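Annual report, structural modelling task.

Input specification for the NAP complex:
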Amino acid sequence: MDIVTANGARIPALGFGTFRIPGAEVLRVLPEALKTGFRHVDTAQAYGNEAEVGEVIERSGIARGDIFLTTKVWVDNFAYDDLIASVEQSLKKLRTDHVDLLLLHWPQSPVPLAEQIGALNAVVKAGKVRHIGVSNYNVALMTQATELSDAPIVTNQIEYHPYLDQTAVLAAARALGISVTAYYAMANGAVPKEPLLKDIAARHGKTAAQVVLRWLVQQPGVITLSKTATESRLAENFAIFDFVLSDDEMAAIHGLARPAGRIVNPAHLAPKWN
Ligand SMILES: NC(=O)c1ccc[n+]([C@@H]2O[C@H](COP(=O)([O-])OP(=O)(O)OC[C@H]3O[C@@H](n4cnc5c(N)ncnc54)[C@H](OP(=O)(O)O)[C@@H]3O)[C@@H](O)[C@H]2O)c1
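The model returned the following structure:
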């Protein structure tokens, strides 16, 4: 497993995403994901499955220190005291005394960013969170968060797949030492069907899904999440570190980007995107 280093954090380049996996499904599929080799698990207060994620990790027999665990604070919990109390609840559900990474899930909130960042720093100081980050932030917000925080911001988790050009956020993140964690890598089912990706995949004896996961982790400072509730796809999505895309193949995949490529854009949560 490749490791991405960012402002002092060491983050496995491939993580298992649990969005839209209900608790009962987590109990079935996450043990298999861990057996496959996934050691980075991404959940959120809003996913409603932290308790099952915690149960599976505890029962796995894998040392807590060998799993990189991320959760995200929901926007309703951004006021200082609420954020701290919500982290206590998350830790209880996750059956652990700390998470490796805590993210602010979306930027739109009546709570000032300084207050949110202040609370993140408080949970770091209390030893409940090793690293902090943001999600769905544009360049300006990412820069502001960095300026406001004592603890470094280590990632910005954003939608990223071949149809969405994230050059601006990537360049700014790299300048700030921040990694980018990609979500929606499969672009809601478009990736496995894309002819160009299937062609490249055939050359490597891989699938289009593997090519895109590889394309993401082959970019400096990029981590990707991969979600599947289909056990047979776990080994497929994990096997992305045994081949290399050429510069021409990387560029051709970048060429799929289009202006209307963004999929996730809730008006009440999203920033003005770059
Ligand atoms: N920060 C945020 O706001 C935010 C937003 C969205 C997601 N996320 C995080 O990012 C993670 C990944 O995003 P995502 O859940 O949309 O997942 P994704 O990795 O893009 O996968 C989406 C869908 O693709 C299918 N799929 C997966 N592997 C495949 C393969 N090899 N071949 C064909 N189809 C495949 C899966 O279907 P099956 O399950 O049926 O196999 C899944 O429903 C989430 O789980 C979550 O942890 C964060």
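The beta strands are 3-6, 9-12, 14-17, 40-42, 68-73, 99-104, 129-135, 153-159, 179-183, 222-226.
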